């Protein structure tokens, strides 16, 4: 039996039970990006308050590739999760009304990664204030988040841009 952890910091991904259009449950409890099964399996965790990065994870046997460095797919997963966490933090309380899905990603792997990985984020096009107003006005927005992944030696190992489609009144129906 799994106990439900309450995050010390950050915000929940979904605040209510949601179902798809066929009535099938999508999530049955509030979920944080670090609680998504693949992210939990990889050991992702929120960075300490005030840190320059948003998510981090330790190197583990599971994360290594055939040459003994951290696999590219693991770095991609960390960066994608960090971009999602960044959006959640930017949306604040409005997140319960917004459906978000990754639409496109461009990633460049720069150097082999070793040790702890840390992902930092920012809006790609510096339109921080307009995201909520665009969601309010049009009901949807396309948002780009830039992510940089550094390893334990503070070497940039990967960088990328993650494009998210956001929509209010997402087509999901909330059920009690």
What would your notes on this structure say?
The protein is α+β, with helices and mostly antiparallel strands and 176 residues long. The protein has a single domain (18-174), classed as Thiol Ester Dehydrase, Chain A (Roll). It has helices spanning 37-42, 72-91, 128-138; strands at 18-19, 25-27, 45-46, 55-57, 98-109, 117-123, 140-150, 156-168, 173-174. A hairpin with a 5-residue loop joins strand 1 (18-19) and strand 2. The longest helix has 20 residues, at 72-91.
Backbone structural class: alpha+beta
Distance between the termini: 23 Å
Note the total helix count: 3
Mean pLDDT figure: 81
CATH topology: Thiol Ester Dehydrase, Chain A
Helix content: 10-25%
Largest sheet: 6 strands, antiparallel
How are strands sequenced across the largest beta sheet? 3-4-6-7-8-5
Number of strands: 9
Uncertain parts: 1-17, 25-30, 170-176
Beta-strand level of the residues, as a percent range?
Answer: 25-35%
Order of helices and strands: EEHEEHEEHEEE
Work out the count of structural domains. Answer: 1
CA radius of gyration is 17 Å
